[in-house]
Design goal:
The structure is a single chain. By secondary structure, this protein is α/β, with parallel strands linked by helices. The chain is built from nine helices and 19 strands. It has helices at 53-64, 81-84, 100-116, 119-122, 179-194, 241-244, 319-332, 380-397, 411-418; strands spanning 45-49, 68-73, 88-90, 126-127, 129-136, 162-169, 174-176, 197-200, 203-209, 212-218, 223-225, 228-231, 249-261, 270-277, 288-291, 297-306, 341-354, 360-363, 370-374. A hairpin with a 2-residue loop joins strand 9 and strand 10. Helix 1 (53-64) runs parallel beside helix 5, helix 1 (53-64) packs parallel to helix 8 (380-397) and helix 3 packs across helix 8. The longest helix is centred in the last third of the chain and has 18 residues, at 380-397. Keywords: Oxidoreductase.
């Protein structure tokens, strides 16, 4: 097996109120020293393909529980949806559906990880009050609303034509992280403390012998030997024939902008789920607004099914969708009008969705030691920790105890194919 050096992922710029995060040393990734000389028993070798939140959480919990882990990422860590998502967390919003137990376990894991990793400082973890608000776009270009028209719990910075506010999440049930910072902080911890190795390269196939996994082969011919492989490839799952022949994961392209208001201290920690009526009429939209403790305000929406390009770096936003989000920002608050707020990012990402809208988590039928974790749609950041913890248990112990994975078993698609 060709030994591959550990590669650091790029630093990210951090605005606003986190001056200690501006130091490059904070995100400097170093390989830990060699494991203990105690080689009895040998740690299980696992390759994780995919440097998004699902892959990183899986690598973190595998390595923390004693596995020898190599993480393979084609481009850069958190370069796709895990770096461009909103980072919203909800305890009970999935109740009544198949993801309820996964979401609840993961919300609680986020809380404990924030305590362990100083998440409030290192990646912007904080509880939120979450509101549902109706906004009708004004025909004028500016945002304004008479204070006499304000009702209910609308925060003062939301000074546009907002109506019908309703609290839909408290600080006990909703929270947030900065998703890119969360993913990179978790990987930094896994590499520094638990010996995870990061390889930048394009995984091409799972190497098998007699129906068992023996490693992963990269596009350039390198082979990373392993007893187990976890494919956490998001919407790129179809790249591997062992997955593409079993199920379909399609992509939803979601747009977002990141603004930095001049008066960031005026923006309170209230997440907004909008029913937005455009000035020109037509179907209302449902954008979301997430202020961040970094001083940024993240706004997302304008989603539609889209083809998945081969390279995540090829995903570019549609200008009309970005302009629509800027109009949303201006309608919500005078603090978010261009000129009063700097536009830090105009971006798009592709969310992975399964055929039945349920995540796919488990061992691939017919291939011992090959596992998949994908299809989390818009809840990938929320469900990353519990997915990673459950996958680590499944790989190392043969079953997961943190959450029952039977509902997410990829074998459900194999059963459907036989009918």
């Amino acid at each position: 097996m060709l030994l591959t050096p550990v590669l650091p992922f790029p630093f990210i710029s951090v605005p606003g109120n986190f001056p200690h995060l501006k130091s490059p040393s904070f995100f400097l990734i170093r390989s830990s020293s060699s494991p203990s000389m105690d080689t009895n028993p040998q740690p299980k070798k696992v390759v994780v393909c995919g440097g998004g939140v699902i892959g990183v959480c899986t690598a973190y919990f595998l390595s923390k529980n004693g596995a020898s882990v190599t993480l393979i990422e084609q481009s850069s860590v958190a370069c796709a949806a895990s770096g461009k998502a909103g980072g919203f967390l909800a305890l009970d919003w999935c109740d009544g559906g198949p993801v309820a137990s996964l979401a609840r376990a993961s919300f609680n894991l986020h809380r404990s990880l924030a305590q362990e990793l100083n998440g409030s400082e290192s990646y912007g973890y904080r509880p939120l009050t979450t509101l549902s608000v109706s906004v009708t776009e004004s025909s004028s270009s500016s945002s304004s609303s008479s204070s006499s028209n304000r009702t209910g719990p609308i925060p003062s910075w939301v000074d546009g034509p907002a109506k019908s506010p309703r609290t839909i999440g408290s600080t006990d049930s909703t929270a947030q992280v900065h998703p890119e910072m969360f993913t990179k902080t978790l990987l930094s911890k896994a590499m520094e403390d638990y010996g995870v190795e990061l390889v930048i390269g394009k995984a091409e196939r799972v190497e098998m012998a007699e129906g068992k996994t023996r490693g992963v082969v990269l596009e350039d011919g390198r082979e990373i030997g392993a007893e187990a492989a976890v494919l956490a490839l998001g919407p790129w799952s179809k790249r591997f024939s062992v997955l593409g022949s079993l199920f379909r994961v399609y992509g939803i392209k979601a747009h977002s902008i990141v603004l930095e208001p001049k008066e960031a201290n005026r923006i309170t920690p209230h997440a907004l789920f909008l029913t937005y009526y455009p000035a020109q009429g037509g179907k209302p939209m449902d954008p979301e607004v997430y202020p961040r403790p970094t001083g940024e305000v993240y706004i997302c929406g304008m989603s539609a099914q889209a083809e998945v390009p081969d390279d995540p770096e090829q995903i570019t936003p549609v200008p009309e969708s970005i302009n629509a989000l800027k109009r949303v920002a201006a309608s919500v608050s005078s603090h978010l009008v261009e000129g009063e707020a700097a536009v830090k990012a105009e971006q798009a990402c592709i969310l992975p969705c399964s055929e039945d809208d349920v995540p796919i988590i488990g061992e691939v039928p017919g291939i011992k030691g090959c596992y998949v974790a994908t299809g989390h749609s818009c809840w990938g950041i929320l469900n990353g920790p519990a997915t990673g913890a459950a996958m680590a248990e499944l790989v190392l112990d043969g079953h997961a105890s943190i959450v029952d994975l039977r509902r997410f078993d990829p074998g459900r698609f194999a059963s459907a194919l036989k009918k």
